[in-house]
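note to self: dont lose this again. the chain is below, predicted strucutre after it. 389 aa total, dont forget to put it in the shared folder this time
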Amino acid sequence: MHALGIDDAYHVERTLAEGRAGVTQLVTIEGSGPFVRKKIPSSLANRAVWAALADCESPRLPQVAATYEMPDCFVAVYDYVPGNTLEHVMASRGRLTRDEAVQIAQDVCEAVSSLHAHGIVHCDINPSNVVVAADGAHLIDFGIAHMTGQKSTRDTVALGTWGFAAPEQYGFAPVDARSDVYSLARMLGYMLTGVSPDLADDAFVRALADSTVVSRPLADAIRRGSAFEPSARYQSIAGFSQTLVTACAKPNGPRMPDDERGASDVSFSASWNGSEADFVYARPYTGGRAVSNGESSSSGNSGYADRVQGVSDFSSKARIMAALYREIRDSRFLQCAILLALGLVMSIVGNFLGAASGDSDSPFYMMAVMGMLLIAISLFIFVIGKVSK
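---
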C-alpha cells in the first residue's frame, strides 16, 4: 500500500513513450519536478542497474530520485533533463563540426566512465539516448543496461539500436564495457559524417575514409573503437577518450547555444561556431521520430522489435554475418587465422582417423598432409603481409 500511495502522489503531465517493455512519463509531485517516471514490467526490470545508477554522481547521468515496487512493475523516478535529443539535432543539422562532435563524445565518455566504474554497461548508446542541454550532453535511457558479468537472458539478447549496437549484442558473445566503446565510436562517426552507420552498408565506411569530411586521426580512432572484434577495440572508455584528445587539437569545443537548444526547427545553414565553412549538409539521421525534452520516441525499456524497427533476429544475424564476411575479406590477419585453424583441424583429425583405421595408405593421411599445407600457406601469407608493411 505504501508504494501505491507514492505512485498516486505523482501527477502525470504527459506520456513520453510507451511500448511492450514499459511506459515513460513526465511527472511532478507536490509542485516539485518535473521528473521522468519509468514503469518497467517486473519480469524485465534490472533492479541491480538502478541501484548502481543511484550511486553514480556524474552530472552527465540522470540522478535517481526514487525506486519502488508495484504489484506488476518496477518503477524508477529520476531527474528530467530539458533539451533536444542528439537525434533531433542531427535531423536539423545534417552533421556537426569536429569540435561540436568531439565535445559531445567527451561528455558521453564522462557519463559512460562513471557507469563502468559502477559495473554498468549501457548497451544502447545512440543519438536518441543523448540529450544536448545547456550544460552539455547527457546520457539517458537505461532500459536494456545490465551489470558487468550479468548472465543474459532471452530478453536481454539482440537488444540495442541497429548500426550503433555492437555485434556481440546480437547473441554472438557476452557484452562488456567494450560494447559501449563500439557504440560511442559509431555515434561519433555519425555526428561527423551525417551518414547513419550500418554493418551491412559501406556508405558509413566510405564517408569515414574521406579526409575532407573526417580527419585521419579521428577516423582511425573511430575505426579502432568500432572494430568488429572486441579485443581489437580500445579496452576502456578512458582509452578512447584520451585518443580523441590527442586526435583533436581542440578537444573541448563550443557548447550548444540557447537558440539551438530550444528551437524545434533550426536552419540548416546555422553552425554553432558561426563558421559556414565548417558546415556541410549531409544525409540526416532517419532512425526514428525525434522527441524533444530528453526522451527518445520509443520506450525506455523497449525490446529489439521496438528499437530496431521490426528487424527480425534472423535478419539481424544475417546482416552481422555479412559484416563479418567484409571483415575477413579486408583483413589479412583474419584470413591467415582461418587458414591456420582449418589446417590444424584437418591435420589433427586426419592423423587421428588414419591411425584409427590401421591402414598406412589411408586417405585420411592425405587430409592431414593438406592440413599441414594450409598451415604453411597461412604462415607464408602472414609473413609476406608483415614484410610488405
